[in-house]
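Me: I hope this is not a bother. Any chance you could explain this protein sequence and its structure tokens? It all follows right here:
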Amino acid sequence: MGMMPVPDAPLDEKAIIAAAEKALADIATIRGEVSKVIFGQEKVVENTLLAILSGGHALLVGVPGLAKTKLVTTLGTVLGLDANRIQFTPDLMPSDILGTEVMDQDENGRRSFRFVKGPVFAQLLMADEINRASPRTQSALLQSMQEYHVTIAGQAYNLPSPFHVLATQNPLEQEGTYPLPEAQLDRFLLQVDVGYPELAAERQILLETTGLSEARATSVVTAERLIEIQKLIRQMPVSEGVVDAILSLVRSARPGQGNAETDKNVAWGPGPRAGQALMLCARARALYEGRLAPSLDDVYALAEPILEHRMALAFSARAEGMSVRDVIAGLVSRARG
């Protein structure tokens, strides 16, 4: 298995291994600290952390009341990030997110504009119920997620570094929701499906959260350290076999690429960002699981969270009651051969 050349890699192999081992230890500490407060939901915690470790944004989808907000607050604390939360509502305006210009007057009566930063100026932003806001407001957030700056009256203001958005969305086709456009969903590195807790975890939630005191998480890394780990992940070598698996998986999910099942069931498939997301997240997942190099397993385990929001079913497949997840599961089992 040849290794892919990694751009921007002044680190030699020994140094990368040493740095990766240190990162392994840090990630294990982060996991342990989060589990003091968030019970069960290992998959949810893992995928959300993978998005952040890979330097991206995540979309958390689940019914209300599954501790999505609590997860985000906990991650902010544990990762040493400055966090803000915006509750999306139908009357929310772009300026409520980005900030506004206010007019100041000095003692001589001279007037000038001053920019007052909105809540988007945070290192970890929770965008709650993002599908309740109007498309115009959604796109104000999504543009800053893409460009890492905000433009007000022609002037650009950089967002803090790191900058991560964890958005939540209710799956129920509720009144007054605006679905996110496909192009904007693509800006989320992965989609995290939040289900109901397992019985044992739900029992623990009942016992631990209804007493006088609740466990609190503490900070275990700084924002600077998180950025170091994110850079290291981009320098981890990926074997040719894993790169080939990523390419063939992503391409097999697109109609018109010679996969008969996909041609029949998929209206449109994932673009190149899906492959980029798999390259980054597979490395992050290896470290998260305590390994120094990504494997085919990492690719297949991440197929669903990375591809799910980047493809849509054909009408006939929807009519048969298929889901995008079913299609992805089929592609993965075929790839595993």
